[in-house]
Design brief:
This protein is an alpha/beta fold. The chain has two domains: 246 residues, Spore Coat Polysaccharide Biosynthesis Protein SpsA, Chain A; 51 residues, no CATH class. The chain is 36% helix and 20% strand. The strands form five sheets. Strands 1-12-7-10-5-2-3-4 form an eight-stranded mixed beta sheet, sandwiched between helices. Helix 4 links the parallel strand 3 and strand 4. The chain starts with 16 loop residues before the first helix and ends in an 11-residue tail after the last helix. Bound molecules: uridine-5'-diphosphate-glucose and 3-phosphoglyceric acid. Uridine-5'-diphosphate-glucose binds next to strand 2, helix 6 and helix 10. Keywords: Glycosyltransferase, Magnesium, Transferase. Belongs to the glycosyltransferase 2 family. Its EC number is 2.4.1.266.
Length: 344
């Protein structure tokens, strides 16, 4: 067939052998890591669980209570359970504390440093507060949370010294007011993160849920990567860890199904823009984006109706800054951080 000079692919696309081998070798299931097995593997390791939380009073209590009951009170697998209060305006801190977590304020842990915002900064503050050798991060908006989320993430780290970082994956229903779309969740993952990572970091294509907010790593390694603010943090962390420790030291674990609070489409647009910004900085580092250049930072969106609606648009214009910043690797700043945690 004449395609006017376009290159013709005469074979079907196939999965990269590297990705297939990694996904086979480095994927486990939470069922592979029963608590008993982890208790005998734990040895001298201390385990911290950190939940970043901004206005999560509806869900944070149940997550904290479950971890405390199953993994702290019944068996001493988790040594430290920290909720980072990320400038909540609701009762997140009180609810978390009442359920048995230690609560630290994002701002207290970053006192004396530039004021940054968003989830990435909350995670950095949580890592600064945590004392464990293994640190697991869990989103605080999860529903129907069960302890295997924690055991699955920390299992490979406690048992296999060659693993440095473990990312969770799961099925993601999109739960609406009146219906559930079985695999409809993870919209930013499918429309933005996965295409970006596949095209520019194809080694990472085997991660089923690259944006999952549930992951664990060795403190020593987590302290050596920068944390991007906002919602760029997971994308940057995967790329940076790939460069720092290599694909073979990264693993993923099947956690079954995950339900969480869905953000609206406009919020996911802003999240996507932050992820694009994050990718740009890493492309620059590779020399694939021109040095010194930077994408715009303002995202213009439209909201139906509203008191400020422009008559010809029947919509309000809403603008947001979607730029991201970075906290440097924690190891570089340790001496400047507050020595003791200050309760939020
Ligand atoms: O300023 C903030 C914003 C969020 N959070 C917490 O971070 C977690 C995840 O935030 P959420 O708004 O629920 O994110 P999702 O819409 O679920 O986004 C998905 O995709 C993001 C981008 O990769 C990841 O950061 C998330 O973990 C992942 O669940 C929750 O516990 C939030 O309370 C903060 O602590 N501070
Ligand atoms: O991880 C994602 O892709 C975003 O958090 C959106 O998730 P949702 O589509 O399940 O709300």
């Amino acid at each position: 067939m004449d395609l006017g000079g376009l290159p013709v692919r005469d074979t079907e696309p196939t999965v990269s052998p590297l990705v297939e081998a990694w996904a086979t070798y480095r994927t486990t299931s939470a069922q592979d890591w029963p608590t008993r097995r982890l208790m005998s593997a734990k040895g001298e390791n201390r385990v911290s669980v950190v939940l970043p939380a901004r206005n999560e009073e509806a869900t944070v209590g149940a997550i904290v209570a479950t971890i405390r009951e199953h993994l702290m009170d019944r068996v001493p697998l988790v040594d430290e359970l920290i909720v980072v209060d990320s400038r909540s305006t609701d009762r997140t801190a009180q609810v978390a504390r009442a359920a048995g977590a230690e609560v630290v304020g994002q701002d207290e842990m970053t006192r004396g440093l530039p004021r940054l915002t968003g989830k990435g900064d909350a995670l950095w503050a949580g890592l600064a507060a945590a004392e464990g050798d293994v640190v697991a991060f869990i989103d605080a908006d999860l529903r129907e949370f069960r302890p295997h989320f924690v055991t699955g993430l920390i299992g490979p780290l406690l048992v296999d010294p060659s693993v440095e970082f473990v990312k969770g994956f799961y099925h993601r229903p999109l739960v609406g007011a009146t219906s559930v779309e079985t695999d409809g969740g993870g919209r930013v993952t499918e429309l933005m993160a996965r295409p970006l990572l596949n095209l520019f970091w194809p080694e990472l294509a085997g991660f089923v849920q690259p944006l999952a907010g549930e992951y664990a790593g060795r403190r020593e390694v987590l302290e050596r990567v920068p944390f991007v603010t906002g919602y760029g943090v997971e994308t940057a962390m995967l790329i940076d860890l790939l460069e720092l420790v290599g694909l073979d030291a990264l693993a993923q674990v099947d956690l079954g199904e995950r339900k969480h609070r869905h953000q609206d489409t406009a919020a996911l647009g802003r999240m996507s823009a932050q992820i694009m910004h994050t990718a740009w900085t890493r492309l620059q580092r590779r020399g694939w984006a021109a040095p010194g250049t930077s994408p715009g930072t303002i995202l213009t969106q439209f909201r139906r109706g509203g008191s400020e609606a422009l008559p010809n648009l029947d919509r309000e214009i809403v603008v947001n800054d979607v730029s991201v910043q970075e906290r440097p690797p924690l190891a570089e700043l340790r001496p400047r951080l507050p020595r003791r945690r200050v309760a939020a």
